[in-house]
Amino acid sequence: MTWQADILTLFPDMFPGPLGYSLAGRALENDVWSCRAHDLRPYGRGRHRALDDTPFGGGAGMVMRPDVLDHALSDVRGSRQCPVIYPTPRGKRLEQKDIERFSQGDGVVILCGRFEGVDERVLEKHAVEQFCMGDFVLSGGEIPALALLDGCVRLLPGVMGSVHSGEEESFSEGLLEYPHYTRPAEWEGRDVPSVLLSGHHQDIARWRHEKSIAVTRAQRPDLWAAYEQRP
Predict the structure, then answer these.
(1) Where in the chain is the domain with CATH 1.10.1270.20?
(2) CA angle at residue 143 from 217 to 225, to 5 degrees?
(3) Looking at domain 3-153, what is its CATH homologous superfamily?
(4) Concatenated DSSP letters for 51-65?
(5) How far apart are CA 43 and CA 39, in angstroms?
(6) Quick one: DSSP state of residue 193?
(7) CA angle 5, 9, 14 (to 5 degrees)
(8) The domain made up of 168-231 is a member of CATH 3.20.20.100
(9) Phi and psi, residue 9, nearest 5°
(10) 3-state SS class at 127
């Protein structure tokens, strides 16, 4: 079954964008997944196809209308039971476990917001899942949508060259990934750690695990604290 991504956006030409290249691009050509970008503008109201209006209670900016987005979501989603996702700074942080869950279904619908945001009522009606990429603000949901889709597509069967490629990546066990080395073994006075040249698989696995711990403690103390609390 082809994994289907439907994106509702004011800028459909942004898709597939970078996802048309490399692993995701080959998978797209081979019908492992499909990418359908739907222009929100035709769903707008009135002669000017208005998508937004002023916020109740006052304040700067405009809010995307619930009636417009409800029509678009109902039309695009149809009878599919796939997740509907809204990238937003007010959402919970997107994690690898979420990516894995999305990739195991038959696809996703992503609503890319603009302006000040989306009327809360349409999010409630469609049980929209809200996620953020980090503690920063972007102009819209398109770039987060691309990142989310890239994370999902690479996990689809047959996309990565090896079935083991995703097993030792960052976040797969709650730790960041260990450092990597390749040829030449000596470069500008810097040597590859000797254990990686030893051929002793148990020693290599132990070294990599220790390095994952060290990197996580140094770079992401929040992840390390969560890892220490695991049962």
Answers:
(1) 168-231
(2) 15
(3) SPOUT methyltransferase, trefoil knot domain (3.40.1280.10)
(4) -EEPPTT--SS-EE-
(5) 8
(6) P
(7) 75
(8) no
(9) -155, 155
(10) coil
Tell me the C-alpha distance between 26 and 55, whole Å.
43
Residue type, 95: E
Using alpha carbons, select from 169, 176, 172 the residue that is nearest to residue 214.
176
Residue 27 to residue 153: CA distance in whole angstroms = 8
Q: Which long-range contacts (CB under 8 A, 24 or more apart) does 76-80 make?
A: 76/6, 76/8, 76/38, 76/109, 77/6, 77/109, 77/126, 80/4, 80/106, 80/107, 80/109
3-state SS, residue 209: helix
Q: Could you tell me which residues are beta bridge partners of residue 108?
A: 5
Angle ∠(224,229,231) on CA atoms, nearest 5: 130
Per residue in 55-113, pLDDT tens?
999 999 999 999 999 999 999 999 999 999 999 999 999 999 999 999 999 999 999 99
What pLDDT sits at residue 61? 93
Dig out the tokens for 7 from the structure.
């994106």
76 in Cβ contact with 68 (< 8 Å): no
**Alpha-carbon torsion 40, 2, 170, 231, what sign?**
positive
- Which residue has 């403690």 as its token pair? 217
Enter the tokens of residue 184: 């030449």
What interhelical angle do 22-29 and 142-153 show, nearest 10? 70
Say if residue 161's pLDDT is above 90.
no
Q: Which two tokens stand for residue 172?
A: 């797969």
Residue span(s) of the chain under CATH 3.40.1280.10 come to 3-153
